[in-house]
Write a structure and sequence with these properties.
The structure holds 3 protein chains of 3 kinds. Chain B is an alpha/beta fold. Chain B contains 13 helices and 17 strands. Chain C has a domain of 260 residues. Classes of the chains: A mainly alpha, B alpha/beta, C mainly alpha.
């Protein structure tokens, strides 16, 4: 029982990340009709916002202290972060919470990047075939990756979770079920964070006029245009919003897996699979499919399952995608007429 | 299918064109060389080495450190800097004026921790840049792949960090040499310490990197721990470079195991270890005992990456910069002064390999590969940080001491992360080269 | 199309063969005349030609072709291990197994079109890759890569020749192919020319016409009573066989297979090559492959030192920013150059290098009545 619950938890936690990325992807797809292969790169950029923020906080003053020696006999360099020197305890606190705090940096940065991307590039590809959209955004993804690689190196840069959330939470004890059900704090935080973001996006689309127009635009762009609404501008904002979602998803993911320049590509394939399983252009579908695939993946990794079907943990997600695509042409919750021929 | 525009004449003509084209190549195939020439023998006043190290991928940190060591070795060979271990190596034919009077130059390539890319890079360095020796490693998969290629090309491969039994076991090659110790020796060295610390009644769960190194280390650790009386609950393979190990760790929690053996290295180990700790494994009590984690192959670079998670964790290493002998001190001093950090075991083995090759050329009096191989086989030396060391002729494996290390509880500074628990002498690590099979193959020179 | 098709095609083929076979001489001045690189030109040329038969003619964008390449490589190495070191059976096995996989994957994937087709091929390729990497290790040796060993049976060789000491080399009867040297290159070159010839036949045949018609409007084709599936499947399988051949040749010139060559990014690379050269053209993909492989080799070995040498005549204040800017694009950053060039091509020159060449020729050659069309203009991939 514990083992199963643990797998469910693990699946939800993976699914949270899948759902967040797929949400932005499908938002862009549903409104703008653009297949964005650079979406993974946006996720990665978000993660590097956290890295940059942490670097800024850790700018240090270096003093060479000739009195102290390194083990091999050269004078020791003493380093103190400026933030701690200036702000004292608050600086140390800020440093500890640098990952969640960097959302403050990530939101405007990602919004700006998203808007520039839409205005500068994506806009000119609305009318071009999907293959061209894939190709041009694939090229863009390579460029973004390489620029990040140039400035941050090719290797993952670990980001610490805040001290208070770095340890283990004994979910079992909270639920009164014994000690074996333990889970890392930060992964639980990530799960709730993803649920909150998903909720916020849905609330925005559902309960605000702005969101209503966007939904109407997704449904029938032309009519909305005829009504005199500047749908183009709204779509720019939607693209920016998608970039922000991907970005904050990336920021919060950094303590789970140290970010490197290539992490976006790895998530890209997965998130596309999530989107088609959920149904192209269906926001609800993306979320459902994200969690579903996360849980399936987690269960497939159980030793008992692997004993029956060896290697299933490596292919389960793709297998599900193939089966769904062949049996349910529109995915789980897809709308009619979306990307059909 | 009907090809309207392709008639018989067309095919005949194109056939003729092809024939002419086919005859042309013979002209370009180079003739045989005179005797006593092997691939890429240096002609000018420099000799070129090729460093094939991973600068990206799961083992990139080790690769970067290896590259530093190679640069330092070239400096010392050319007589620049303080000479490092050239001064302590004995016997030595090195004079610090290059090799056989030729200055040492080098080219490098990023092996990306991938066999294909590594072979590509090695080929490029041999064919385009004229490298006479290839060195590097950090993944046994890559080392085995490149070693196979070097045997084919007739280029000596002085492997860097590679710990799989296969490198000098079932996949050993006449042109391949390894200074680093192997998984079997790790098991022999670590077994007694584990028995002493954790008792005889333990149930172990292995997470294993899914390639040659992981497999042989899992096998060696199983053999060593089962000899103590431990039981193996499960051994699960994980793909190399999987950043998120959570799905592999969750099954451990309820498996009834009380020891987790992580057959991971580099970033994989950093990730799997920190994630295991986040899952509360080290705070657990199972079967009335404290849950323990063991990392059989352990290095300072990984300890830096994993932070607090390494405290109290046992593992083995080929060498450690805190060892107390002149050679180690000399090397640590020149490396530290040059790069501002102490050398890792990966750096040490690469540095030593470069020196050993150079020394063998000097002793052989030529760069002719078969002669250099002969000079290396059965060579016994001292003063390289591991005590008296023998390059065994049967499998090209160095026989020497290794260390058992433990993550330090109270580090003094950011480099003081591991303590040497025990130096395991060479005699205890000796084994019969026949147990792993394999065949070295011929040493006939190749023209390229 | 052409005024005198047979003659023009013959000229094209002859010219192409001449260029390919003389590569060692032609490439000498630009420092690319070493066998390993030229082999790559040919092998990736074949791969790209094959990809182009699918993408260029039908507009179906597959992101899974690397899987066939990998299957071909594994099949070839198994042929070396089990039967003989001769290259011919290995190549036949490679093409056969790739075709087998292509039939299965193609049959399923072609049930959908457009982006769904792309995702399906991607999913299949990732499945193949993940399996090769994990549970299929007895067959593929996983991450370590499949290699020859002294214990291999090699039944056919064992019947005829006394095994020499050490690992045998791949041969074409008396000629050594693997282990460096020009023989491997010439084998690949001849294969490239044959593949080019076959592609040319397909392009000029009614079958090729049919594929183009599918690209321009599949619905119309269906309404006229055509079942397009068999044609698409045939194109998919042919293109998979090309990929298998390329994989086989990789194994022939260097008998080791690493799983990485099956990853989806490897499929992405052949897409880049084809688009860069010019999708839908005959020569374009080969050109694209050569340009990418050459730049990869040359750019990636540049270092800031080389740049400082090149711009050394400038004063330091100007030199340093230039060098630090340019160093973004060379060395490790050469992929950035690739990305930028690729994006520019997709945005401004959808026909790739070939269209660029055509435009340049048009500029010099603007005579009325000379506006004959070459397939380079038909590059808009269909949905």
């Amino acid at each position: 029982m514990d083992a199963l619950l643990l797998q469910v938890l693990n699946g939800l936690d993976k699914g949270g990340a899948y759902a967040l990325i797929a949400l932005g992807l499908t938002l862009v797809f549903g409104t703008l009709g653009v297949v964005n292969f650079a979406h993974g790169a946006l996720f990665m950029l978000g993660a590097f916002c956290a890295v940059t923020f942490n670097r800024l906080l850790n700018l240090e003053s270096v003093v060479i202290d000739p009195a102290q020696k390194t083990p091999w006999g050269t004078p020791l360099e003493v380093r103190t972060p400026y933030v701690e020197a200036w702000l004292g305890d608050f600086g140390a606190f800020l440093n500890d919470y640098s990952v969640p705090a960097s959302i403050v940096l990530a939101v405007p940065v990602m919004l700006a990047i998203g808007i520039v991307m839409e205005r500068g590039l994506i806009r000119h590809f609305y009318k071009r075939p999907h293959a061209d959209q894939i190709l041009v955004t694939f090229g863009l993804a390579i460029i973004i990756q390489e620029i990040i690689k140039h400035f941050f190196g090719a290797n993952p840069i670990p980001q610490p979770a805040p001290e208070a959330f770095g340890g283990t939470v004994y979910v079992g004890e909270i639920l009164g079920m014994g000690q074996t059900l333990a889970y890392p704090w930060w992964r639980i935080v990530y799960l709730f964070f993803s649920l909150a973001v998903i909720g916020a996006v849905f609330a925005f689309l559902q309960f605000t006029t702005y969101g209503m127009v966007v939904r109407a635009g997704m449904h029938d762009r032309q009519t909305v245009g005829f009504l005199g609404i500047d749908i183009e501008r709204r779509f720019t904002v939607v693209f920016g919003l998608a970039a922000v979602i991907a970005g904050v998803a990336g920021v919060m993911y950094t303590p789970i897996v140290p970010p490197d320049y290539h992490m976006g590509m790895e998530f890209l394939v997965l998130s596309f699979v999530v989107v088609v399983v959920g149904g192209m252009g269906s926001l609800g579908g993306a979320v459902v499919a994200g969690f579903l695939l996360g849980i399936l993946q987690s269960f497939a990794s159980m030793n008992e399952v692997k004993a029956i079907i060896p290697g299933i943990d490596h292919v389960i997600i793709y297998l599900v995608a193939v089966v769904i695509l062949l049996t349910l042409p529109r995915g789980l919750l897809g709308r009619k007429g979306m990307m059909e021929d | 299918m009907k090809f309207e525009n392709v008639n018989r004449r067309f095919i005949l003509k194109s056939g003729a064109a092809l024939g002419v084209g086919l005859a042309a190549p013979m002209h370009f195939i180079r003739g045989a060389y005179a005797e006593d020439m092997s691939c890429n023998m240096p002609k000018g006043d420099t000799v070129t080495f090729g460093w094939n190290v991973p600068l990206t991928g799961a083992y990139a940190d080790e690769g970067a450190d290896e590259l530093k060591a190679f640069q330092l070795a070239v400096k010392h060979l050319n007589g620049e800097g303080d000479g490092g271990m050239i001064a302590t190596m004995k016997p030595t034919a090195l004079k610090g004026n290059g090799i056989l009077g030729k200055k040492v130059a080098y080219v490098q390539s990023d092996s990306q921790t991938k066999s294909d890319a590594a072979r590509d890079g090695a080929k490029r360095m041999v064919e385009r840049d004229g490298a006479i020796m290839i060195s590097g490693g950090s993944s046994s998969g890559v080392a085995v792949a490149v070693q196979g290629l070097c045997q084919e090309l007739g280029i000596i491969f002085m492997s860097g960090l590679t710990h799989s039994n296969d490198t000098t076991g079932k996949d050993k090659k006449r042109y391949g040499f390894r200074h680093f110790f192997n998984a079997y020796q790790s098991g022999v060295a670590l077994g007694p310490v584990l028995g002493q610390e954790y008792g005889k009644e333990r149930r172990a769960y292995h997470l294993t990197a899914d390639y040659t190194w992981g497999w042989t280390q899992e096998e060696s650790m199983k053999a060593a721990t089962e000899k103590l009386g431990w039981k193996t609950v499960a051994a699960v393979r994980t793909p190399l470079g999987a950043a998120d190990f959570s799905q592999y760790i969750t099954p451990v929690l309820n498996s009834g195991a009380d020891v987790l053996i992580l057959n991971h290295y580099g970033k994989d180990m950093v990730n799997s270890l920190t994630q295991s700790v986040q899952f509360g494994l080290r705070d657990k009590q199972v079967n009335g005992k404290k849950f323990e984690i063991v990392v059989p192959l352990f290095s300072e670079l990984m300890a830096q990456g994993a932070g607090d998670a390494v405290k109290g964790i046992y593992g083995t290493g080929n060498w450690d910069w805190k060892l107390d002998d002149d050679a180690t001190k000399a090397f640590t001093k020149s490396f530290g002064a040059e790069f501002g950090s102490p050398p890792s075991q990966a750096a040490h083995t690469c540095y030593v390999q470069a020196l050993l090759y150079a020394d063998a050329c000097e002793r052989a009096g030529t760069f002719y590969a078969p002669a250099v191989i002969k000079a290396l086989e059965g060579f016994e030396f001292d003063g390289m940080g591991n005590g008296k060391t023998l390059y065994r002729a049967e499998d090209h494996q160095c026989m020497k001491s290794c260390v058992v290390v433990k993550g330090k509880e109270n580090p003094k500074d950011k480099f003081d992360l591991m303590e040497v628990v025990k130096v395991v002498p060479r005699e205890e690590l000796d084994y019969d080269p026949a147990i792993f099979g394999g065949e070295l193959g011929p040493s006939d020179p190749k023209q390229c | 199309m052409f005024n005198n098709p047979a003659r023009n095609d013959w000229l094209l083929l002859a010219g192409f063969s001449a260029v390919v076979l003389c590569l060692p001489v032609l490439l000498e001045p630009i420092g690319a005349a070493y066998p390993a690189l030229m082999q790559k030109f040919c092998i990736f040329g074949i791969f790209a030609i094959g990809f182009n038969i699918l993408f260029g003619l039908t507009g179906y964008l597959s992101f899974g072709h690397a899987a066939f390449l990998g299957v071909g490589s594994y099949a070839a190495v198994w042929s070396f291990k089990l039967f003989t070191m001769n290259a011919i059976p290995a190549i036949v096995m490679a093409v056969f197994f790739a075709a087998l996989f292509a039939v299965v994957i193609g049959y399923v994937s072609l049930k959908r079109s457009g982006i769904y087709f792309s995702i399906l091929t991607l999913a299949f390729a990732q499945m193949c890759y993940n399996l090769v990497y994990s549970v299929l290790t007895p067959l593929t040796n996983g991450e370590t890569g499949l290699q020859l060993s002294l214990q291999d049976p090699r039944v056919i060789d064992a019947m005829f020749i006394e095994p020499a000491a050490g690992l045998p080399r791949v041969n074409l009867f008396a000629l050594n192919i693997s282990g460096g040297g020009y023989a491997g290159f010439y084998l690949c070159a001849v294969m490239l020319i044959i593949c080019f010839f076959i592609a040319m036949c397909i392009f000029r045949s009614p079958f090729g016409m049919m594929l183009r018609a599918i690209k321009s409007n599949q619905t119309r084709m269906r309404y006229t009573g055509f079942n397009t599936r068999p044609y698409l499947l045939a194109a998919f399988v042919i293109s998979g066989m090309y990929a298998g051949l390329a994989g086989g040749l990789m194994a022939v010139t260097d008998p080791l297979v690493g799983a990485e060559r099956m990853q989806w990014t490897a499929s992405g690379e052949v897409v880049l090559m084809t688009i860069l050269g010019g999708a839908g053209t005959l020569v374009g993909p080969v050109l694209g492959a050569a340009v990418i492989k050459y730049c990869e080799n040359i750019f990636s070995s540049f270092s800031p030192g080389t740049l400082h040498g090149a711009f050394g005549f400038l004063p330091d204040a100007i030199e340093d920013p230039i060098v630090s800017f340019l160093s973004l694009f060379v060395g490790d950053g050469w992929n950035l150059t690739l990305g930028v060039v690729f994006m520019l091509i997709v945005i401004f020159l959808p026909g790739g290098i070939m269209e660029g060449l055509r435009r340049i020729r048009m500029m010099f050659n603007r005579r009325p009545g000379n506006g004959r069309k070459i397939p380079a203009t038909q590059t808009q991939p269909a949905e």
